Amino acid sequence: MSLPATSHTIHIEQLRKSYNVGAAVTDVHYIIKDVNLVIRGGEFFVLLGPSGCGKSTLLNMIAGFVSKSGGRLRVGNTEVNKPGSDRAVVFQQADSSLFPWLTVRENVEFGLRMKKMPRSERRSVSDRYIGLVGLNGHEEKFPKELSGGMKQRVQLARVLANDPAILLMDEPFGALDAMTRRTMQKELVQIWRETHKTVIFVTHDIQEALLLGERIGIMSVGPSSNITDIYDNTLAYPRDVAASEFYALYNRIQSHFEE
Ligand SMILES: Nc1ncnc2c1ncn2[C@@H]1O[C@H](COP(=O)(O)OP(=O)(O)OP(=O)(O)O)[C@@H](O)[C@H]1O
Hints:
Layout: E1 10-20, E2 28-39, E3 44-48, H1 55-63, E4 70-75, E5 78-79, E6 87-90, H2 104-114, H3 119-132, H4 148-161, E7 166-170, H5 178-195, E8 198-203, H6 206-212, E9 215-219, E10 227-232, H7 244-258
Parallel strand pairs: 3-8, 3-9, 6-7, 7-8
Antiparallel strand pairs: 1-2, 1-4, 4-5, 9-10
Helix pairs in contact: 2-3, 2-4, 3-4
This protein binds adenosine-5'-triphosphate (ATP).
Adenosine-5'-triphosphate binds next to helix 1.
Keywords: ATP-binding, Nucleotide-binding, Transport
Protein name: ABC transporter ATP-binding protein
GO molecular function: ATP binding; ATP hydrolysis activity
């Protein structure tokens, strides 16, 4: 990592996203309204909230895919108003992001090829990340020959190969079976600890949030959603769902959604 962690701290101030729902200027529907948040460089931050509250909207604003309607959004000192190589998104459906006509290795190397990285260097980068996500031996396979979990690993390896400082993950394990999901969660923590990336991970699953995040931001039900509470999760990794502290924190967070 060439940049100091502070240069990719994310600063969010009074951030808003709205859509006009009628002809009058007052016919405005706010998805998120006045969100304030600072996410430190290198942090693992989870955005937790019910379906439709605006988690993906906020993540896509940080990615630069969705424009803001008000407020400020900076990475370091730079205002975010478009996608950038410092940020990359891992989506829930790997199928829509992988190129079906390219092998695992070619998919992982795609961005590097676009950057005109020499072949031997590309090879060593793709070797590293294919290994890191546990896909050694599958380099020459095509996406259609892979399971859902393996495709998600390819997507992650491709994103990591491009070396963004910030990984934006939108329910990346939501479509996987429970066992694969658990394995991927453990591997992601391992990868985060090895690469020191900033991770912002969207989920509506409290257990997943608690297994992964150093901090968990709770989003309120929309419209005009906001981050109402932030929990510090200081439990040591790898986390044990059966530990009494885990269970206690789970209950505290769950009580938010029962009110
Ligand atoms: N382009 C748009 N125009 C109008 N409303 C939109 C637009 N995009 C999203 N919305 C609305 O914004 C709200 C938040 O959507 P978003 O996908 O961000 O929520 P989410 O918390 O990620 O949901 P889920 O967990 O179900 O994926 C929803 O009510 C959605 O219908």
